[in-house]
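To assess whether ligand presence alters the predicted conformation, the chain was also submitted together with flavin mononucleotide. Input:
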Amino acid sequence: MRVLGICGSPRNSTTNYVLNEALNRLNENGFETDLVSCFGKHIAPCMHCDYCMEHKKCINEDDMNEVYKKLQQCDGLILATPVQSGGVSSNLSVIMDRTRALEAIDYNILRGKIGMSIAVGGDRTGGQDFAHLKNITYFMIHGIIPVSGGPFGSNLGASFWSKDSLEDIKNDEYGFDSLNRTLVEFENFLRKYID
Ligand SMILES: Cc1cc2nc3c(=O)[nH]c(=O)nc-3n(C[C@H](O)[C@H](O)[C@H](O)COP(=O)(O)O)c2cc1C
């Protein structure tokens, strides 16, 4: 089974670090993993030109092509985002919009995959839950089954408090507890629902 992690940060720092930790653990537990980062990528916003509806591909030829390929191939999807302006990063939001061109090819292309959310805020209560809700909404819209840490904590996904520092996020015990809880459920769902 393949798990794709998308890092929505425009740089290679705290979100990338925790996503890597998540994918390493999945890898140790027998999953194939892949990480795509927005760092250094050129992915233009959707222009709503509807070219994809007619031509079954996006009019933009950019780094989204790699993401399209990997989205199709994965069984599980982790959306990891820095909290920006109280929600997901603009980089991740662009990827979400651009997914429209995939479904112009095949309406069911993402249906039945398993999804989980990671949100990294500079502040402890900087909007991690709003970022999770956006990720979960994306999952729902595309027929991806969203998982969280369950009813006893990490109720929407894994939430980190980075204090804007790579050193500090490494010591965010609560964040890593929430990641562990969410990963347990994610693995359970993958094993149960993906052949
Ligand atoms: C434009 C911008 C907006 C931000 N808005 C928020 C915010 O609303 N809430 C918050 O907790 N942190 C906010 N931050 C801080 C980042 O979430 C935090 O530094 C995070 O660790 C960055 O992730 P990265 O290291 O993976 O880029 C913002 C950072 C930037 C650059």
